[in-house]
Amino acid sequence: MLEQALNMGEGYVLDFSDRTFNDFFYETLGIDPETEGLLFNGRGTSKAKRLRSFIERAPASSVAKLLRELWDYRGSMVTRGRTAREQELEASFFTTVGRFEGASQDIDTSAIETFEPNETLDELVASIRRDLDAKKPHAALDRLHTYCMKRFASLVRKHGGGECGVDDPLHSRVGRYIKHLGAQRNLSQMSERIIRSSISVFEAMNEIRNNNSLAHDNPDLIDPDEARFIFDSVTAILRYIKSVDGRQFED
Question: Is the pLDDT higher at 251 or at 236?
Answer without folding.
Answer: 236
